[in-house]
Amino acid sequence: MRYVFLALGFFFVALGFIGAFLPVLPTTPFLILAAACFARSSQRLELWLLDHPRFGPLLRDWRLRGAIPRKAKMMALIGTGLGFFLFWFGSNPGPLLALSVAALMLTGLIYVFTRPS
């Protein structure tokens, strides 16, 4: 299982790296998953993530308090709104699909906004 978690950790780091350059793909959630996988497979790689100058403080705050910074919450709100706007006008969905997507997006936003800052 150690090698499975190690491979997953590298996979999530790669997704997080891609997300740093693509606005539609988040970075931090993938790095949180990577840190969790590395915690089960490689202490050295886990510490590398937790000590990273840019992402380390976010990962440590999440691990200690389940905290999401206020700026990240605002970015989630803007990104979700933009995503729904593009979905609505780009695909002209039916009412059931539009409500389902809106409910899913709102569920995610509620989770994000109920975390401490």
Automatic annotation (TrEMBL):
InterPro entries: DUF454
Taxonomic superkingdom: Bacteria
Keyword flag Transmembrane: yes
Pfam families, per database record: DUF454
Bilayer-spanning residue ranges: 72-90, 96-114
Annotated keywords: Membrane, Transmembrane, Transmembrane helix
PANTHER family: INNER MEMBRANE PROTEIN YBAN
Record's protein name: YbaN family protein
